[in-house]
Amino acid sequence: MVRDQRHKRRGKNPGRRPKDRKPKDFTPEEKILETVEIVELGRRGDGIAKRDNGESSFVPYTLAGETVKIERAGNRSKILEIITPSPERIEPFCPHFGTCGGCAVQHASFQHYQVWKRGIVETALLHKGIEAEIDPLIGAHGDGRRRVTFHAKREKNEILAGFMKSKSHRILNLESCPILEPKLASGIAIARTFAKFVPSRSKPLDIQLTATDNGLDCNVKGASQEGTELFTEIAELADQHGLSRVAFDGENILERQPPNLSVGDVKVTLPPASFLQPTQAGEDVLAALVLEHMEDASNIADLFCGIGPFALRLAKTAAITAVDNDGPSIAALTDAVNHVQGLKPVTAIERDLFEDPLLPMELNKFDAVLFDPPRAGAAAQVEQLIVSDIHKVVGVSCDPVSFSRDARALIDGGFKLECVTPVDQFKYTSHVEIVALFERA
């Protein structure tokens, strides 16, 4: 999630990586058996082994200090035997760990896991020459993830639904996932039912589900038939599982009731397939940190605002100008503001901040600026912040690498990094959120 559905709604898809290719099948002659010692846990959750020639091997599901026997092809490896386990190794709670391509680190003790995840942020900053005091990691998994994408397909007489297997394009057939909100307990059954009657293209269907206040919101991707042609089957499925809305590739097919979310005290109708923080607890923690850093500001620019998880909370005490290039999100935010009282003025603007960032003459009217960009970061907007008169900037990020690049630019441009707080929404993965406060030196 890794975050980022918002990449898909930006025209030029900034920062998107090429699709992963199917791992190469090595011949028996290419495979090497060896015993190695794991020296550290890498930022993606794989153990790193240093070989005698100085090269590294990446060994999934290992921990620093372990001696393991591996089968290696190139720099990719798999465990054959753990000879000396780490004292930090624990039993994973999910029976699919190691086969499922979702979680990367269920085998480490909680304390070891926290140190590793906080270290991801620290290392990214150090690579840009930034030494900063980093707050303790805040756990924000809450009741579990409130949004998920299941893959589903029909293969001969079998219906498969679940996540992709680790380093594979094959579906791991599941019955449940323990890291999801209880509201999503029926998600795999829903995905499997869709695969029964919705013809797909060459790839499996992607069934995107979001738990809202009044039912599950569903978006189906990859169908080879128009959803309107399957309306009867979709209606039966929606009634059976309490789906509030069903869309195909973002286009509404059926809506039993608007899928609403509570953003603070405000109700927002979620646009189909729109971005949302993965956990409710995560959104609450990020918002609390932002509010704390912005408590003295009375006129704030909220850039890359989405549906307004920060704007609607900040608007209790400050006038807000919220900007994002996703039209449906801006429309949802505007509609929410028009149906609530007691907020300061909120102006929502559709604008591509990658191609058309706010310029200094526009920025200078604000007391403070908040930015929460997709994984690509906010390089173009940061350039304009540097040459503006803005004294306070709060950055929220889902990617320590792009955040560190933007932080380096702000520091070189005259800002001081006052505070960095890592937040853990994607528990058991390498993904970590950051909230940081910059003030002009």
- The termini sit apart by 35 Å
In CATH, what is the homologous superfamily of the largest domain? Vaccinia Virus protein VP39
As a percent range, the share of helical residues equals 10-25%
Which assembly state applies to the chains in this document? single chain
The number of helical segments is 9
CATH-defined fold name of the largest domain: Rossmann fold
Give your account of this protein's structure.
With 441 residues, the protein is of the alpha/beta class. The protein folds into three domains: 31-84, Nucleic acid-binding proteins (OB fold (Dihydrolipoamide Acetyltransferase, E2P)); 121-141 and 276-440, Vaccinia Virus protein VP39 (Rossmann fold), CATH 3.40.50; 147-260, OB fold (Dihydrolipoamide Acetyltransferase, E2P) (Beta Barrel), CATH 2.40.50. Helix content is 22%, strand content 30%. It has helices at residues 110-127, 187-197, 231-241, 280-293, 311-314, 327-338, 360-363, 379-386, 400-412, and strands spanning 32-41, 47-50, 56-59, 67-73, 76-84, 138-139, 147-155, 158-164, 171-173, 205-212, 215-221, 243-248, 251-255, 260-263, 266-269, 299-303, 319-324, 346-350, 368-371, 392-397, 415-424, 433-440. It has an eight-stranded mixed β-sheet with strand order 6-21-22-20-19-16-17-18, with helices on both faces. Strands 9-8-7-10-11-12-13 form a seven-stranded mixed β-sheet. β1 (32-41) and β2 form a beta hairpin. α2 runs antiparallel to α3. The longest helix has 18 residues, at 110-127. The protein is flat, with a radius of gyration of 23 Å. The two termini are 35 Å apart.
